[in-house]
Amino acid sequence: MAKSKKIVIGVVLTGILCLVLIHFRTPFFQPKGGDWSVGFGFSDAAIADVKPRRDQVISPTDLQKSEKNTKFLADPFFIKEKDSFYLFFEHKHFNPFKADISVMASADGKKYHYKGKVLEEKFHLSYPQVFRHQGKMYMLPETGAAGHVLLYASDNFPYGWKIADTLFKGRFKDPSIYLSDTLSIMVASDDNLSMHLFTADSLHGKWARKHRVLMGSEARPGGRIFESGGSLYLPVQDCSKGYGSSLSLYRFDFSKKETQLVKVKEEFLKAVPEMREFSYGMHHYDVQKVDGRHYYVYDGNNIDGDEKIPTIYYALKLSLYDFLSLF
């Protein structure tokens, strides 16, 4: 009887300790995330030291001067075409309460002007990764709500986007693609906190799912795959302290039989408490080399009020998946 009692006490104490550790890592009560804003800047390196400045941020309030129906802007991707920077983003509206893809343009990468909606569907759209390939302009947005990963092409850039191909079926979030003469890869996340690697022999070839590369609180792409120092890097969302709280950097390791993602930098982007627009956190980064320097865009959101919301189930779920990812 005494032995059974000790076992029960041991189990209870172990459970309490586990809850304390989980709460320390992923608090059971967290601030409520608010609306998203976009920032930008120049850097001498691809892995930039991002220090937000108010004159380099576009907030919902700023965009509402051109489009009153704006609730927030997020998931920015850019491309420079001829003499202009084009910044594509998820554009969430008040009425109807849905998102489409819009674009802003700038002559110098500093002062942007809203150019309107470029893509709208009946299903949710976000994460508009725009890229040039073999002389054509493409966009690979998140189209998971349609049940397919859809590729769009433009016949009147930055407008005129039409479906060019269905790369593969499935509800996948934030597909991030990298294409070169020798490599065609993509990563995307499912609804079960897992990120998967896909490969093909070309953009319009047959894309095949290879294996899971990440699982748990850090298992969702947070921007374009980019090159630095001869290696490929992927920004990855860190949701351990809430969705959109910070961004990590991972490096692709092709040296083993199965391609792996290796974390190289924690909290590459994170909350900036002294700046309201990014007081909650950040979760996206896109960088490319432009005219000898690197140009980057990113996003983040603010804390919505002083009230904290219960996130116990979320914390337990993330912790369970993080534990399972060890095996």
How would you characterize this protein structure?
With 327 residues, this protein is mainly beta. It has a single domain, classed as Tachylectin-2, Chain A. It is 13% helix and 53% strand. It has three helices and 20 strands. The chain has helices spanning 2-25, 60-63, 312-324; strands spanning 29-43, 57-58, 70-81, 84-93, 99-106, 113-119, 126-133, 136-142, 148-156, 159-169, 173-179, 184-189, 194-199, 208-215, 226-228, 231-238, 246-253, 260-270, 281-290, 293-310. The strands form five sheets. It has a four-stranded antiparallel sheet. Strand 7 and strand 8 (136-142) form a beta hairpin. The longest helix is centred in the first third of the chain and has 24 residues, at 2-25. The two termini are 36 Å apart. The model has no long low-confidence stretch (mean pLDDT 95).
Query: Strand order, biggest sheet?
Result: 2-1-20-19
CATH fold-type name: Tachylectin-2, Chain A
The CATH C-level name is Mainly Beta
Most strands sheet = 4 strands, antiparallel
Range of helix content: 10-25%
Estimate the global geometry from the Cα principal axes: globular
- State the total count of DSSP E strands: 20
Termini separation: 36 Å
Instruction: Extract low-pLDDT stretches.
Output: none
* SS field, number of helical segments: 3
Report the C-alpha radius of gyration, rounded: 21 Å
Task: Give the overall pLDDT as a whole number.
Answer: 95
Order of helices and strands: HEEHEEEEEEEEEEEEEEEEEEH
Structural class: mainly beta
- Name of the CATH homologous superfamily: Glycosyl hydrolase domain, family 43
**Number of folding domains?**
1
What amount of the residues lies in strands? over 45%
